[in-house]
Amino acid sequence: MKQDINKKGYFTLEAAIVLPIFVIGILSIGYCMKIFSTAETITYSMMDETGHLAAQAYGKPVAPGFPAELKQRIREENERIRHIKITEFQYRHSGRGKTDLITVACRYQLDLSLPLRLQDNFEMESKIQCRGFVGKNSRGSPMNFKEMEKNGDASLVWIFPMWGKKFHKETCIYVTNNPRQMVLTAELKKRFKACELCGAERVLTGSYVYCFMRAGTVYHKDSCKIVDKYTIEVEKRDALAKGYIPCSKCGGG
To answer: If you compute the radius of gyration of the chain from its CA atoms, what whole number of angstroms results?
Structure first.
């Protein structure tokens, strides 16, 4: 009988030692998942914003407001983030034999405490680099007047510059159900009102906005959560040259 009591005491002592360690381990794994999840969310926001900027780079020689817009988006989408700072932003710069590069780095502090206060306020940094959608300089001879008068294949098609590699007709269901990239003009402001969710009223005339042409009544900024896939119109020959193929549903025009 005395031996059974000793065994029970041994198991109780073992549980008292192991259980707290096990609980702390599980909690630590959960906190690590939160850290990586937050870092992934911020990286996605940076990639998405930089991708939109790259798509507009051809007609946008400078982008002074991009760091502030990126900082605002990160702050809105991540409640636990503190002390956000854009530590590096270079627009259409050259490096490693490439031109028109876009580089942005963000340093931030994650307001999160591990069990037993082992670590507080993680400082992290994310960096993104891509190339602007500007094509390349042609080294051939400029087109003469006779060539300009020739009737070539100048039909317009619609593509998703950030999604997929197919071109579509204007009436294609994929195009009509998604927003279209447009230049904000006085006439467009009369037809559509500014989106209140993304603060589109602050967009300057002449900038790109995004409208649902089929059933929309407002225009949006490129960072608006409602704007996911958007379309732009290009010449069919340019789409083919960039590797786009006809849409299997509408034939591409």
So the answer is: 27
